[in-house]
Design brief:
Number of strands of chain B: 8
Helix content of chain B: 55-70%
CATH topology of the largest domain in chain B: Cytochrome Bc1 Complex, Chain C
Order of helices and strands of chain B: HHEHEEHHHHHHEHHHEEHHHHEEHHH
Radius of gyration of chain A: 37 Å
Oligomer: heterodimer
Largest interface: A-B, 98 and 119 residues
Distance between the termini of chain A: 80 Å
Number of strands of chain A: 14
Low-confidence stretches of chain A: none
CATH architecture of one domain in chain A: 3-layer Sandwich
CATH architecture of the largest domain in chain B: Up-down Bundle
CATH superfamily of the largest domain in chain B: Cytochrome Bc1 Complex, Chain C
Largest sheet of chain B: 2 strands, antiparallel
Number of domains of chain B: 2
Shape of chain B: globular
Shape of chain A: extended
Low-confidence stretches of chain B: none
Strand content of chain A: 15-25%
Number of helices of chain B: 19
Strand order of the largest sheet of chain A: 4-5-6-7-12
Structural class of chain B: mainly alpha
Largest sheet of chain A: 5 strands, antiparallel
CATH class of one domain in chain A: Mainly Beta
Number of helices of chain A: 8
Strand order of the largest sheet of chain B: 1-4
CATH superfamily of one domain in chain A: Rieske [2Fe-2S] iron-sulphur domain
Mean pLDDT of chain A: 91
Helix content of chain A: 25-40%
Strand content of chain B: 5-15%
Mean pLDDT of chain B: 93
Chain lengths: ~325, ~525
């Protein structure tokens, strides 16, 4: 015994301490009253809810400190409901804690593993069942069943095929064509270069032909941002410079990362920033990515003016706009 | 016998005559549930789910899940005459024309946030106390499934109103689908019924949000609870509590009153939040159009860590053989979350493989007594917290006058450096706490009473701790590391030598502990004094 390590012993469940309400009838009566008060408060909450629903106008606003101007009806309904529900809960729990029996009970656990006899019989049954079916002995049945089950798995896939059309060239084409006018969004007015001052930004869309409707699908690909700088501020190769007009440069507004609208333009630094993931593009260098997760510059739209002096596209986008996809070649 | 007792007896008899349930009910109505505040976390999830079902059903009576274009003619003047989808217009109507509609919308949204917080905190409780160990591995996996589905369900839910913010979220989801190699653009076109945004997506996710996923939730939650019931709840260690018993209160009436009351408390708190705390004020965002966006676009918090991972990703894309692979989307959007959730689901099996422990456990661990598990948990949590912080990097940058670049570089470096540091610190802390426990048992607690000895020396009087406390601090088991054979009996190297070496090593790391105090040591020390 002397050199054996003796562990500290379990003193067993501590003796139960009785509550005041268990022995003192006065304390019990007090607890009972408290529970009843809570339930009554709940009833008042419901009354507040009913009153707010019927008598408080939905355009009435009241000033509450911290919350500010608050719609009275919404607040009354909500607080009424909150009080009604919370007090029922608080009452029930107070009742359980003060008046219901609070002596801890000990129940025994049993191991989940069945006894050996049941278990071996169970395993035997499973084994017998498996061998009676004879799947192992009849490879022809097994293989054809697997083939049939596998093939039938195609049914739901096939039936879901008509969820939508095939992409075809939809992801690569936009509505911009050679000579398409840029129009303001909103307003659909064509734009002359002199409408834009240096430092200005404009959101534009391709002009609609007579009778055409613009859908959100179009906007999702066609949105273009116009930015006017001083021509000497550009740092572009000859081709890209020829895509600008008098310091006006046009980019797809749809982020090359995940398709959000790249809408934040910082005039001082000439950076475009996407609010979704903070990809930052340098306007002077053809929207080169200078920060963030985007891997490609925003596609640039080549622009010029038409005979009437309005800004038009020189040509369609030379690459797909928006986020990347498998079939995209560059 | 009072009249009331007679009625109760008659009801019980009536039920048993028709179902023969007496035997089962007798056993289960007196079933014992251990009490601890942290066992309420799972209940919060359950109750928020019920609140979600109730408030959600209310919302469906008015919500029109359609992307058909309508012109707004409701009472909210700033949007008067604007073109928008029927989904957005009907959400405005719920908010402004239906009495209590805004309250219900806000309760629904708050309940969803509480549901997700509840799941995560419940998961942490289960993890850090080792409640996932045999025989509860199934329930752990179901829980991970519920967490995953909860994230999807929440995302679909806040996407339904078709406001500018939620439409932007859908746009990002579409970009993730589109980034899948080979099949991405096809799946995107099938899901959206054509190009983005189309007019099919909201009606489709509506069915998934109100029917398919809630159905799966209901089934999984039922199995989850049935398993808790059948396997009996775990309990914290303490005097009188063993692996073989459950100490607590009987279901009828104490536990029923407490649990039922707690449902009303959760509902009441959610209603209070819905009444005073504005959430997702969609009328301020305007209808969705792909050409517009608002600064500071943020997802709900349970998507925030994903968005944060995407934000910090380096700009890597591969262009080869006429195809594009967007690693900057695939890695943070699919691959990393895939690894994280798979690791989470498999953790019970990994741990039991590492420790070689295949026994049943019903007594919970104090986190300090399993330093390795606790450290892994804090490490994973640190990783997720850095991602979550980065999901709000723009807001944090503007609030604390930082640049977005500082935030981003902090996250990019922090996500790699901070988790291992967290692991090391946590493990040390756990061991220090074990040491403190040992000291407490052997030397007693400091009383703060100073005594001057005859020699002039001042000493602080220590008082022995109670036997209950001493038992609590020493009742845990300290398992020995595995020592799997590296050679077989005849000196030939075992074919599984590498695997065994690795397992021995992990097991050694897992078994690191400060030896717990024993009665023998206590007595020896007493002899010295």
């Amino acid at each position: 015994m002397s050199n054996e390590i003796e562990l500290i012993k379990d003193p067993g469940l501590p003796a139960h301490v009785h509550r005041q309400a268990d022995s003192d009838p006065k304390a019990a009566a007090r607890a009972e009253r408290q529970v009843a008060i809570l339930f009554m408060l709940s009833a008042l909450g419901t009354l507040l809810l009913i009153y707010s629903y019927i008598f408080v106008k939905d355009d009435r606003f009241i000033f509450i400190p911290v919350l500010g101007n608050t719609n009275a009806q919404q607040l009354g309904l909500g607080l009424g409901m909150a009080i009604a529900l919370f007090c029922i809960g608080a009452g029930a729990i107070h009742w359980a804690k003060t008046l219901m029996p609070d002596e801890e009970v000990i129940a025994q656990r049993h191991e989940f593993r069945s006894d050996d006899e049941d278990r071996s019989e169970f395993i035997k049954t499973v084994k017998e069942g498996a061998s009676a079916a004879g799947l192992g002995r009849r490879p022809l049945i097994k293989r054809s069943l697997i083939a049939a089950l596998g093939l039938s798995g195609l049914t739901p896939l096939l039936l879901l095929r008509d969820l939508g059309p095939l992409p075809k060239d939809d992801l690569t084409k936009t509505s911009w064509k050679t000579g398409t006018r840029l129009v303001t969004d909103p307003g659909d007015r064509p734009i002359r270069p002199e409408d834009l001052e240096v430092g200005a930004v404009a959101q534009t869309l391709p002009e609609l032909a007579q009778g055409e409707e613009r859908t959100l699908n179009n906007i999702g690909k066609d949105a273009v941002l116009l930015i006017r700088l001083r021509p000497e501020e550009f740092n572009l190769d000859a081709e890209r410079l020829s895509w600008t007009h008098e310091g006006i440069i046009a980019f797809s507004k749809i982020c090359s990362h995940m398709g959000c609208a790249v809408a934040l333009y910082e005039q001082q630094t000439k950076h475009l920033l996407c609010p979704c993931h903070q990809s930052t593009f340098d306007v002077t260098r053809a929207a080169k990515v200078i920060f963030g997760p985007a891997a490609r510059p925003l596609p640039q739209l080549a622009i010029t003016v038409d005979a009437d002096g309005y800004l038009v596209a020189q040509q369609p986008f030379t690459e797909p706009v928006g986020p990347s996809f498998w079939e995209r070649s560059s | 016998m009072t009249a009331r007792e007679r009625i109760a007896g008659n009801v019980a008899g009536y039920v048993d005559d028709r179902t023969g349930a007496a035997k089962w009910m007798k056993k289960n109505l007196t079933k014992v549930f251990p009490d601890h505040w942290s066992f309420l976390l799972g209940e919060i999830c359950l109750y928020s789910f019920v609140i979600l079902l109730l408030s959600g059903t209310f919302l469906t009576f008015w919500f029109d899940p359609s992307q058909r274009e309508v012109i707004y003619e409701g009472s909210y003047a700033p949007l008067e005459g604007l073109k928008m989808s029927a989904a957005y217009a009907s959400t405005l109507d719920i908010s402004f024309e239906v009495r209590g509609g805004l309250l219900m919308r806000q309760i629904h949204h708050w309940a969803a946030l509480i549901f997700m917080v509840g799941i995560v905190v419940h998961l942490l409780r289960v993890y850090f106390t080792g409640a996932f160990r045999k025989p509860r591995e199934f329930n752990w996996i179901i829980g991970v499934g519920l967490l995953t589905l909860g994230i999807v369900e929440g995302f679909l839910g806040y996407s339904l109103p078709d406001d500018l913010l939620s439409g932007t979220g859908i746009r990002i989801a579409e970009a993730i689908i589109q980034a899948l190699p080979l099949v991405g653009s096809y799946i995107a076109f099938f899901a959206f019924g054509g190009a983005f945004p189309g007019e099919a997506f909201i009606p489709r996710i509506y069915t998934v949000h109100v029917l398919l996923l809630p159905g799966i939730f209901l089934a999984l939650i039922t199995v989850h609870l049935m398993l808790v019931w059948y396997q009996k709840h775990t309990q914290f260690p303490g005097p009188g509590r063993t692996e073989k018993n459950v100490v607590g209160y009987p279901l009828m009436p104490v536990y029923m009153a407490k649990a039922g009351g707690f449902f009303f408390i959760v509902f009441g708190v959610t209603a209070f939040l819905g009444a005073v705390a504005s959430i997702n004020p969609i009328w301020l965002y305007g209808p969705y159009t792909p050409g517009q966006i608002s600064a500071g676009s943020q997802p709900d918090w349970y998507m925030g860590w994903l968005d944060g991972l995407v934000r910090m990703s380096p700009p890597i894309e591969t262009h080869a053989f006429g195809h594009t692979i967007s690693w900057n989307i695939l890695i943070p959007g699919l691959i990393l979350p895939g690894i994280m959730f798979t690791g989470l689901a498999l953790y019970p099996f990994i741990e039991s493989w590492a420790t070689g422990d295949k026994r049943e456990h019903h007594l919970l661990d104090r986190p300090r007594n399993t330093p390795n598990r606790t450290a892994i948990g804090v490490m994973a949590l640190t990783f997720t917290m850095v991602s979550l912080l980065n999901g709000g990097n723009d807001i944090i940058a503007t609030t604390f006058h930082l640049t977005i670049n500082q935030m981003m570089w902090f996250s990019r470096i922090g996500i790699i450096v901070l988790p291992p540091i967290a692991f090391i610190i946590t493990k040390r802390l756990c061991l220090s706490l074990q040491r403190a426990d040992r000291d407490l048992v052997l030397h007693g607690r400091e009383t703060g009473r100073l005594v001057r000895m005859p020699s002039g020396e001042f000493v602080e009087v220590h008082e022995p701790i109670s036997p209950e406390k001493a038992w609590l601090l020493t009742s845990h088991e300290q398992i020995a590391p595995l020592e799997l054979p590296l050679e077989d009996g005849s000196g030939v190297r075992n074919p599984g030598v590498l695997k065994n070496k690795l397992r021995n090593r992990i097991s050694r790391a897992t078994a690191v502990a400060v030896p717990k105090a024993t009665e023998t040591e206590r007595r020896e020390l007493e002899g010295h004094h």
